[in-house]
Structures are given as structure tokens and as C-alpha cells.
Structure to design on (1824 residues):
């Protein structure tokens, strides 16, 4: 999970501020760090930092970023120490010019490729896939002297997920892997072409959504305009496997991915879930924020009143003083508070988007009970998560995924709910309205070879 | 608008961390600054700063705040430069001991009192009402030698709104003005008594809501327990005039004020608004976040589907780079984005909590239209705001209040809506379920003399 | 110890930046905090903060300080927590206008006065003498309606040291106590009058030193020009008792105080010390920085070569990681390092300005011995410090002053020097060239009543 | 100009704090940034940042640097934007392990080598020589599998100055280039071996100076102890060309470089300068701080009294508000202030260490004249600087060096001195007491080929 954004200004205007706004709209895709690189035609200028977009950038440093082509990145908060060295875009200098890469996704075999390159004398300074990609591309470039050919060649060695925006000298390039795991779209206004992880990034700069970058497509934008080609001949959108969790959870509801409104998907999920797993409850209540839209759909379908039984503290940020061991439940209370007047003596059905470890669900069910609910039922807007993701979503190990080893009823017992129901895989496909999805985490069937992930 | 919180620990444990959690839950009442003062029985220790609660406090400075009685304050962001000198609680030293005050509300005649005190030789270092209150109380204290008598005497001179928590030597005191303008409640657990602006502050520390502080009541907590008295004999809850906007907009929906659930009020508002100002629309959509609950009630009453047609960027904070003049619309777009797939070709009724100047409403209506809505109707969950507030709510002047000079139809024309409807005053009273409210801003009838406000 | 600076611009130009430069030159008088207050003729604007002048001020906040009259302050680092509330200038609002005070010195009876004022209902928010002064002046002002009369009246009650710069509405006022404990001088250029703690503050803004403010003098500068009067009739410069340590240690050597060059005094001290306490050494070496000029004089007088045997780390600041208990000697080594090639096998006479507790001298003598010196002699450019200062110099208690209870030979033994010699009181008077000095700390004779200091 | 420091702890204790102290003592060699990398035997841990050593490090981040071998670096402030990417030590990961490099010096042909490496597919992320060195060493390592052999091979391709400390897996390696341009020495105590740019770095941690690293020597420290070898057979200390400016200006006076005390050199410079360029003056005065020691020597030789005629503001840091164009002279006044009582009506001879552009000297002479000096003579403790340095000293271009095109008399005229005298090259050699010096900047004879510097 990361967000990427790029602009090519045909009128040669500075683009850094617009990239800043674009990243602002993509902030939900990553809060750990942010960076912008622009080219003024001869030189690259960049600024990166740890924190939210408005914490990293200010008028002073934005104004120093003079350039009419540029790319930006917001980095997802992962476990372990966050260091500025891992912030993107990643910039390298080669004998054929400067190259900057912004990457969203995980490449399954990057550690194998890195080891191979190291044997050949390549030297790495960060622990990111982006640096591996940069090395591969520059290595090819020295052979082919052609950036598009190089990207195309490199892609043949890559297994996994990569939506890329590349700034190479005076050219802006967008690449989406052949499986189209992660979203990437093209925008336009009178002066500029845009590339954005999600269409909500285009809305904020008042650009028009032209279309999505196709799986396996390389889009090139330079002074001659926009061009397209594919990393190989045998690519078909039918074979795509776009991450279903983009629709279920990650993407902003106001985004449209591959022609499908994320909002509509979430609403559909609620309706289908209601048909598959109805509940004789007095009220439907979402676990905010991710369960809200599905809960409305669920309520509508079953004609059970929708109530906001849990209130989220809008100011809960990343930096509150960590509660000590005995204050763990406090951490949940700081974030969510039940509305007793709603819940008291009611049969409540809670709607959440997913269950990972089960511990948070357990705390929430407990909180709703303590607030006076007579019964607490839980309905989940996605199937059981049974396998980890290797394409860019931060998940615990298989052992920690509660659904990998427990039945629905065992999970229900663990979280202490009166009943528990998940959306079926078929229901999910129907809600999204497309079949070419990556369902690895809920089916265990990975759309690419993942054996290399475990090779050392 | 400010939030206040206090604790007395009978088991003599440090209270600063719990005050921190309480202020965290009251953060919606003020984001400009925060402060905590504690007493260890002999000395006061304090820390204040500008910014959000988790920005002002960290483990290091919280650990330095040793003391078993304490009060805290979150300050509302007002226009003009924010300076640390105005942060509360306000602490003073007198010959009879130390006194700290945390204040929520505006005192109409404080400038007159201040001038009078200045003539008598009093000297002020901040521009806050709290300092004026501190001077008055200490002045009385030198006469009466009794803190409760002093507070009682002082209250006779005060016109306006004041919910106070006072730390005087080893005593914690809560005061609510005779009109009960601002909320204030009492909580309890095995070890502590609590005072909080709203009951959601008690929930976060797992304390039980005992009751509200009554209008005109002085609650005293010390080693001998809790006691209560009134600032004068002729006070009756019937004569209270509690700010109706606490229910409509300010308070957190999970709070209960004077026995009435804020959430229920907002839901009722939607229902009554639906009856008073129905609309033949395809969908009901809230202006997030403040219009959400009323929109659900509106939708339920009229059986029009509820859709989230505008998505709010959850990361919009206080510190983004200010857009230049020509980028004003961008500022709204950074905050709200329409979901075109929902709005396209629809007759949309938008629900918002209030209209102040009208300019933001105009931009939102425009945004919804551009997103493809066929018709845009606006319904407001409160009556027309025609008069400024003198009791603590930051409002523009009467001239800037669009409803002070324009009819509903003129306002509708200004904001370019297809229709516009406000909740009636009677509807509002019915929704809240109590009559003893301050309705000054919507009726022009002020519950206290306000002539002094204009005296120089 | 603090530094104060003020400007009145007759050409109505903004003065904040020049005050910033003046405070920069007075930085040696205080590093804990800094502040500037200016008046634009109707309003005061101020900025204060903890830290060095260039840390507190930047172009942005300096530019906001619009005003043609202004005063500034640098605060001395004292023991205990430093808090922004104690930073000066101290600003108060009264019914007769705004008043800001910048104060250098300690008022012996301020705690008595404060207690008295508290009994009368005055309320204090800081623990500074400046606030007490402000209250006294405003109290008088309400009676007399005349600022100069008020200052004059107030001064009758004050015992101790006070060099003040006061900004009252549109008037700049400089006051020096009748004993002239602390320096204060007047400067001038084509556009402005200046007041500064030391003449080096005038040099930096290229102003001409007009003269010192006389003991007991009140200098008033407003649109009508500059005027002078005295706090009482029976004041004579002969009765002054200016702090001798200003010449010996505090003031910058390029300053001129009461017509006497500080540099020359320090040089003289070395020469007279050489006559009084000669030494048969191979080299003379200063303890940098304060012993340098006297060491040169000492070397010159005895014709013993001058060598810099100890090198000071120029980057030692206030913020290095505190060494643990066992690393105490490291703290001295971080600051000072011996030059072995100079000291090896030499008879060394070290020159320092004073001995307070004796522990640092002991460490330095030890360090020089370890570096190979054959003999280590110590000569001190001031008499034995036997009594604490009550006029503004931060000193330990009498018990901690090593010379209060030990003879010269006992001190010599404690610090492990081969010989030890102090400048005599007569020698000091001769070196400075004036008799009207405060010698309390070396003679025990206080020029004012100090009994109130010990009254509670 | 940079400072480097390394420790190997045989008792396996954490070394980060001692490296911090070492860097503190080397702070004069670089103020732009600092970094420390340690190895715990399996992993590297590092922290870097912009600013002074105590600004970059605190107890928290020092405590996280767990490891018993480590290296540190302070970076010199160069023109242009300072970015964290250029901070050292530079860390790389290769298939044969981790490598960190701290580098002091400039490699003349690094840009040629970099270009060659880029052609071979190497990719660079910073603009530092250190990264080029890291790539070369790792490349050799893949061939030879031996770190010492690799360093030795690499050194054959390098032209220029490099004192290096390398951390490779569990080995600490010190390297000094065959010409010994930059200093580097070895220290020892009971538990540790140390490597430091200057011996003052050893003093601060109470380590004993063992000896200097010889020109062309590679010193290896690991669990088996310390070993030494040379980069080639034909290296002789006689052929060294150590930077003379280390003795004249850069190094701390308490350091000993190649067995010669820096303090003694500066004193000698003053004496020899006095013989070569005597002056019939009333007083000798240094331009502080760099001219002080030589001025004392000059004064001693000619028996003219030594006076500190210019006082330096000890608090002038890196961050004061930049004066506008018309305030340029103010910038000098903020830093230096003349003591009028010393200078008035005197014939003054000023001693400075060097003249670069001449503009600062001109301002200082002017300042001394304005302070009342009758005559102002200038004597310079080094020969005319006529050629730029290519080995690591930040100097302007040849055109900007005033002595590259002007005669002594023309320079005298420009700076408006009554007379001007430089130390001769022979005098300088005599003062230092060794002939194997780099005198390129004063002679134009470069000890290495520099033609590659200008090749593109």
C-alpha cells in the first residue's frame, strides 16, 4: 500500500504544488512518509520526509521544487523503524541520465533479483523494491539505450505487483504490472497529463479521468504527447487479477477503479451480505469508518434501521502516548466510544469490512455488550482471510490470521458474538462486478508463482 | 467553545495521565492549545502548549506532573494569532494560596469588570475571561477567606456563560452558571471523582456518569468527599437556557447532556426536518461530518435512500499550505469530494447542520451540480441563524450572517439550490425535548442582558 | 545577570530588527530566553521564547513586530526549570495604558513587597521581580497619573539592583537604581535613541555611545526628545556601588562601563596581580576564556612567556548529552583540553578570574598536572569570594563558597596547586580605577540593607 | 574538511557514546551534519542528521546504536543546499556483507571513475566521493574476496586525498592516502583501539595517542588485534605531502599531527613572520580566533605589546537572520567588535592566518581605522594563496583568489592597510619543521596529477 502521483505540464509550469495536492488526496494510502521529485528539463530537484504530506511539505520547500515534470509518493506505515532512506521516489544517476521511481506494490522475487545483482557488483543503500527496480532498469538501459525497451525487458523478470511512475530525464512513464494488481489511472486537463493511484487524486486538481492504465501497459508522456505500448504481446485484461481489497477497504469510496465505483461496490457488499447472512436484529451499526457504507446497504436490504452505535474520535492520530500493558483496552476506548442510548437493550448487528487477528473485533463486541446491547451479531463484508498477501498489503503471518485455522463458529466463540457471518467469495465477485480479481488472501490461490518468496 | 476536565483521586494517585485521556476525548471542543495543572498537596505543577493534546503532551512532561488533584483544558481555535499566554488553565498565586481556573464560555460583561478592576489597580497579562475570573475570586477570597462564598459572591456580578473547574489549594471545584449555558457533568469510579465538559470524557477513562452539574450549582470535592451548594437561592433548572448548538453541532454524538442523548437529538432533527421540509428527491446525502446523523433520520422518515454523496478527506488537518486566491475552490476540494456515480442524474437533497455565511454551502451545491446531479435541494437541521452568539461560540458579525438580512428564498438563490428548507424553532425544541434552551442566535432573544457587551 | 536593550525611532521606522542585533551583542548576559516588545503607537506587539536570540527570532516573527519604539531582554540561565512564563519583557495592561518592563538585577525586598501586594489583592502569574515592579508602578500610576512620578515613588520602596527599560504607551524610559549596581548606557544615531546594558550593544548597530545612565537617574524619551530627572534629590555618583564583577567577568571586554574600558581593567588586574602575587614560573597560561586578558597582563608584568596551555572547544553548547556520574571528568574534558607540548615539564602559572566552589579549579589543576606540568600555580584575578550576592548574580550559598570557610592555604590544598594567590581588594579597586564599587561578595559589606532578604 | 572517528571495543562494550564524544571534539572540522554507524557483530545500526553533533544526537538515539565497533563522521559546511543524503558514514550492502565508509579529503579523479562505473552499470544515489569509494571497494571485493587486497587495489586508481575509516562486517580499517594529505591517528586504552582525524579526539575519551597512520598505510583492527600493511611497496613518508593548512588553520591547536604540535607551529609562524616582516607598531593584535597564537609569537619576537583589539561574539552561530544587502557591514560587526580604548591613536599591526578574497580583511582594516587607530598594518601567517585546492579545502576559484592576480602592494591598496606582509614559503616550512608538505595553494605545484580534474 502506497500512493503515487505524476504530472507532465505541456505549458512548462511548475507542477510540485499540484503533486502536493494529489498526494494529499492519496494520503489514506500511506502516512509514514512522502516525497516529490521534479525535473526542470536539465536537473532533478527533490524533497522527502517522514510524516503526513502537510508535515513534510511547506511553502518554502515546495517553492524550491522548480520543474514542469514530476512524480510523488506517499509511503505506507509498516512495522519496524521508519527511516528516511526508505522514502520514495527513489532517485539514481546513471551515465544515461537521471531516473526517479515511485512504486506501489510488492515484487515477490525482488530479494532473489537483488542477491543476483549484488553478485554482479551492484550495491544497494536501501531495503526497498524501488531500488532493485531502478538497478534493473538502468542495467537494461546501458544495453538497449531505450527506456521503454528497458522497462519492457525488466518486466519479464518481475513476479508480483507494481504500479510505477518513472521520471526519466524529460519523460514521464506509467507502468502497471501485467496482472494489474494495483490501480493506476490517467488524467488530463488543458495544460497537463496526470498519472494517479486513484481517481480521487485527479478530482482534487480538477482534472478529468481519461482512463485506467491497462494491466501490462507502459504509458509514455513527453513533449511529443502521450503514447502507449505493452510489456509483451500476450497480455489480456481478462487475465488481470486486481486486488479485491482495493474495493473493499483501501481505496477511497469516491474513486473509480477500472471503471467500477468503489462506493457502489461497498454498498453492494452490504446488500449481498444481507441476503447471504441476514440477521434478526433491532438495529444495524457499522464499525467506523470502514464498515459504514456496507452497513447502510445491509440496513437498506433488510429494512432494519441504521444507527451509528459507535463513535470514532476524529482526532485519534498516530502519536498518542502509548498506554501501558494494563491500559490496552483504553487504546480502543480512545478511538471508539459506544452510544449507550442507541445500544441499550437492543439486538445489534455490527458490520465490519474484515477480521484479521480477531482481537480488535473481540474488544468491540465486548464494548457494545457493556453498553447494554441484548445481542451482538457480527457480519463481515469480505470472505474469511486465510492466507497472507505477497503483493503489497501488510498482513500478519498465516498463523496469526484467525480464519486460517478456526471455523466460523470457533471465531464467533473467540470474539464472543451471538452470531457471525462472512460474505462469500461469490458474493464478493458479484458485488464488485468483475471476475478478474486477486482473491489470494481469501482463497489461497495466488495468481503468480510465489515459491520464490520462500527461497533464500 | 472549549473543553474542561478535572479529577480528584481519593487514593492519592497521579491524575495527569487520566486528564490527558479525558482531554483527548474532548479534543473536538478545541484544537488550538491544551494545558494541565495538578496539585501534589503543596505545590502546583503545570504544562501548557499550542496544538493538539498529543502534540502538547508526551510521556516525559506527563510524568513530571506529579499530583492527585488536577484540571485540564483544550482551547478552541479562534481568529487571530494564537499565543501561549492565552492557553489555560490560568494559574495565579495569592496570599491565600494557589488557584488555577479552566473556563468554558464567554462572560458578556468581562471587559467592563476588567476595566473596573484595572481602575482599582488590578493588572492583567492575558486577554482571557479566565484571568478576570481569577482576579474577582481572589479579591473576594481576601475578604471572605472562604472559596465557596467567594465564588458565590463573584457569580452575582457575572453575566454570561461559564462552566468552570477550579483547583484551589487541595480542593477541586466545579461551577456551572445559573443559566447552564454550557454542559458540565460529574463522574466517578472506585478511586476518583471526575468533572468533564461532556460525558464522552468520562467514558474514555471508564468512569460512570453520576449526573450533570446543575445550573447555578457549585460542587466541591476534597478529602472530606463531595458537597454541593448553589450560587443563590432563586435558581431553578426551569430557568436554564442551555446552548441548543451543543446538541446540534458541538458536542460529540456519544455524549449525554442534561440527561438527553446528543445522538438521539440529531436523529430526531432529521425526522422532524423531513416532516417540516420534505423533498421529492432520489437520494438523501449529508454534508459530512456534521450532517450525517440528521441525514439518516431524514432518509428514514421519508423513505428516500441514504447515500454518502460527498467524501471527506480524513487527513485534512490544520496545517496544509494555504492556497492562493485563485485556488480557493481547491480548498473545498481538498476537504470534500463528490462521488459522481452516486450523484449523476439524481435529484439530491443535501442535509447540513447550519448555514452561517452561505459561501461554503454555495461551493458545495456547486460541486454537487458539477458532479452531475439533476437537482440539488438543501435542508438545514437548525433554524436560520440571525443573531450573533455572546456566550462562547465564534460567529461572524450580524452583517456577515446571511440569514440576518436575507429571506429563505434569497438565500436559496445565493447558494444556487433548487430548494432550501430550515428546521423551525418549534421543531428544534421538539427534537431536543426540552424548552429551557438558549435560542438567541436563531430567535434574537438573549436570555441575559447583553447591553453591556456594547458598552465601552 | 540579564541584558536589556531599547530603541526609540524618531523617523518612525520599525525597530525590532535592530533590537534583535542589540540583543545578539548582549547574548553573553543571558542565554536562557529572549523577548522583544514593540509599540506601533497604539498597540504592543511581542514575541518571546526560550533559547538563544537567533533560536527565538526569525525573519517571520521579526517582521510581525511592527513598531517604532521597542525594548528587548535576554534572560540568564538560572538553576531549576526554565519556563516561558518567566521570560521578559513583562507586559501588563492597565486602565491607563500598556506597560512593558525589561529588568536587569535583583531586588532584595521584592518578596516582601509581593506579599504585601498579595494582601492588597494583587495577583501574580510569574515568579519574577519584573512583575512586582510592574504592579508597583501601575499602582502608583493610578494615584499620580504620571509615569515618571510613579517610577520615582516606587523606587523609594525598592532595595537592591535594577537597571530597567520601560515601554509605556509611546514613551521609552530608562532607569538605573541609586546605587548603579548594574550598567546601563545611552546611544544615538541620526534616527534613533538607544538604551543598552552595555556599550557593545550600541556598536553592533553603529550607534554612538552618548553617556551612561547615572545612578538614580530616570531618562525619558518620547516624541519631544530626551529628558532626565532623578528618583530623589540626595543622589550622588560618589555613593554608587557598581558591581565589580561586571568589570572582572560579566561584561564584554569591548564594553565601556561608567567611562572605564572593561578590557583595560582586566589587563590591569593581571599586572597588579603579578605585583601582588608573583610566581617563578616558566609559562603563564589562562583558563579560557575569562582568564585570558589578565593572563596577558600578568605575563607582561613579570616577563614570563604567555602560552595557551588549555584549549577550549568552541562548540561546547548548552545541549550535550549529560554524562553519567562516572563521566564527570569527561564533562570538563569536553570543554577544555591541555596542550601537552606546552605544559610538559614546565612550571606553569594558571590565571583564572575567580574561584567559587573550587571543584572546577581542582579538575583543571589536575588536568594540567596529568599533561606533564612540573609545577602548577594558580593566580586569581579577584579577591576571595566569601559572601553571596543578593543583587542579581547567581551564586551558591555561603556554605558552598569555598573561601567563606577556608584559608588560602586550605583552598590551595583542596585544589592541589603548588601555590595559590588572590588579587587583594585594594588591588582590584586600583585595577578598576574607581572606589564606588559593590564589593559585597569579597568584603561581606553590603551597600544596602539585606536583612529583608531573610525575612519571610 | 571533515572529521572522522572510529572505535573497536575488545571488551564488546557499546561504543556509540564514545564516538559521540570523539565527534564533539572534532566538531571544528565540520558543522553541517554528523553520523554514526555501529556494528553489533551481525547488523549495522546508524543515525545521521544535519546540524551540530549535539543537535543530531540525543540519549534516545545514541542508546539505540548498540554495537562494539563503530565509525563516525562530521561533515563540513559547503556552499549550496545541504541534504541528508550527503551525510556520512555512507553504508552499502553487498553480497559479501555490509560496508560503511567515513571519508575526509577530495579525490581528484572521482568524477572520471564515477562516469566509468556508471558505464559499467553502477548506479549512484548521492554526490559524494564516499559512494564512489564504496562502489570501487565492493567491486574489487567480489573479485578478490579480501577486503585489504581490495582497498589496496582500489587505491592504485585513486588520485587525491583520502583519510578513511571503514567498517566492514566485524573489522575496523583505517586508510591514509600515500601522500598523507589529511591527518589520521591511532589511539588506545585498556579496552579499545581508536582511530581519529586529530589527536584531540583521543584526549576527550582519555585515550593515549599511539602514533599517526602512515601515508599509504592500511591499519586493520579486529578480534585478532591490530595489523598494518601498505597500499604498495614504494611508499615512503619522505614523499608525503601533508596539507600545510592543517597546521596553519584547520586543526585544533591542542592536536599533534605527524609528531608535530599544531600549537607550536602557530607560535613559530608568529616568530618567523616577525623576523621576515617586522613592523614598527605600538601594539600587536590578532584577528580572532585564527590569528591569536601567531600574534602572541609575533609580539614576543619583536617585543611589541600584545592586545586583543578585536573582540569576537562567542555566540555567533550559523543561524542568524541574514542581513539584507545594505546591512553587509553589520554582519562583520555582529561577529567582531573593536576595543576603542586599545586601538585609539595607536599604530596597530594585525595578525591574520590568511587572505582569500580580501573582502573580509578590507572590512576589518576599515573597522580598526574607524575605532581610532593611527596606522593599520597587516601581517599574514601564511604565504599568498595563488591556486585553488583540489584535495578537500573549500576555496573560491583562482579568479576570486586576490593573490592570484595582484601583487602584495596591490592587495595592500585594496584592503587599505598601511603595510602588508606575508610569511614566505621557506618561513612556513621552517615553522612547521617538515618539508614533506602540500604547498599547492601557495606554490601552484600540485603533488599529484590534477589534469583529470578538468577532464569531463
Amino acid at each position: 500500500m502506497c500512493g503515487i502521483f505524476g504530472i507532465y505540464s505541456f505549458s512548462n509550469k511548475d507542477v510540485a504544488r499540484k503533486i502536493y495536492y494529489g498526494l494529499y488526496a492519496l494520503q489514506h494510502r500511506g502516512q509514514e512518509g512522502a516525497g516529490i521529485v521534479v525535473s526542470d528539463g536539465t536537473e532533478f530537484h527533490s524533497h522527502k520526509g517522514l510524516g503526513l504530506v502537510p508535515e513534510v511539505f511547506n511553502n518554502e520547500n515546495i517553492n524550491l521544487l522548480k520543474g514542469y515534470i514530476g512524480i510523488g509518493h506517499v509511503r505506507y506505515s509498516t512495522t519496524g523503524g521508519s527511516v528516511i532512506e526508505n522514502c520514495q521516489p527513489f532517485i539514481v544517476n546513471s551515465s544515461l541520465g537521471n531516473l526517479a521511481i515511485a512504486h506501489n506494490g510488492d515484487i515477490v522475487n525482488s530479494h532473489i533479483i537483488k542477491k543476483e545483482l549484488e553478485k554482479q557488483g551492484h550495491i544497494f543503500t536501501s531495503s526497498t523494491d524501488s531500488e532493485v527496480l531502478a538497478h534493473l532498469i538502468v542495467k537494461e538501459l546501458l544495453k538497449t539505450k531505450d527506456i521503454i525497451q528497458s522497462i519492457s525487458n525488466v518486466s519479464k523478470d518481475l513476479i508480483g505487483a507494481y504500479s510505477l511512475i518513472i521520471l526519466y530525464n524529460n519523460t514521464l512513464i506509467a507502468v502497471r504490472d501485467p496482472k494489474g494488481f494495483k490501480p493506476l489511472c490517467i488524467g488530463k486537463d488543458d495544460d497537463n497529463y496526470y498519472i494517479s493511484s486513484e481517481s480521487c487524486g485527479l478530482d482534487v486538481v480538477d482534472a478529468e479521468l481519461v482512463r485506467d492504465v491497462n494491466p501490462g501497459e507502459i504509458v509514455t508522456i513527453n513533449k511529443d504527447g502521450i503514447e502507449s505500448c505493452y510489456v509483451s504481446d500476450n497480455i489480456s485484461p481478462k487475465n488481470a487479477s486486481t486486488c479485491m481489497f482495493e474495493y473493499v477497504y483501501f481505496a477511497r469510496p469516491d474513486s473509480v477503479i477500472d471503471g467500477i465505483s468503489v462506493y457502489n461496490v461497498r454498498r453492494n457488499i452490504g446488500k449481498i451480505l444481507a441476503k447471504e447472512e441476514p440477521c434478526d436484529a433491532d438495529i444495524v451499526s457499522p464499525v467506523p469508518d470502514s464498515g459504514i457504507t456496507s452497513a447502510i446497504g445491509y440496513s437498506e436490504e433488510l429494512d432494519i434501521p441504521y444507527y451509528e452505535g459507535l463513535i470514532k474520535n476524529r482526532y485519534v492520530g498516530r502519536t498518542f502516548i502509548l498506554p501501558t500493558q494494563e491500559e490496552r483496552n483504553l487504546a480502543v476506548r480512545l478511538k471508539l466510544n459506544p452510544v449507550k442510548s442507541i445500544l441499550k437493550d437492543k439486538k445489534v448487528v455490527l458490520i465490519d469490512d474484515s477480521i484479521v487477528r480477531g482481537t480488535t473485533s473481540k474488544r468491540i463486541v465486548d464494548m457494545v455488550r457493556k453498553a447494554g446491547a441484548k445481542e451482538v451479531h457480527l457480519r463481515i463484508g469480505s470472505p474469511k482471510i486465510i492466507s497472507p498477501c505477497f503483493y503489497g498489503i501488510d498482513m500478519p503471518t498465516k498463523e496469526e490470521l484467525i480464519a486460517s485455522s478456526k471455523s466460523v463458529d470457533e471465531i464467533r466463540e473467540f470474539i464472543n458474538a451471538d452470531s457471525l457471518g462472512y460474505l462469500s467469495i461469490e458474493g464478493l465477485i458479484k458485488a464488485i462486478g468483475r471476475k478478474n480479481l486477486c482473491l489470494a488472501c481469501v482463497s489461497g490461490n495466488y495468481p503468480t508463482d510465489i515459491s520464490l518468496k520462500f527461497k533464500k
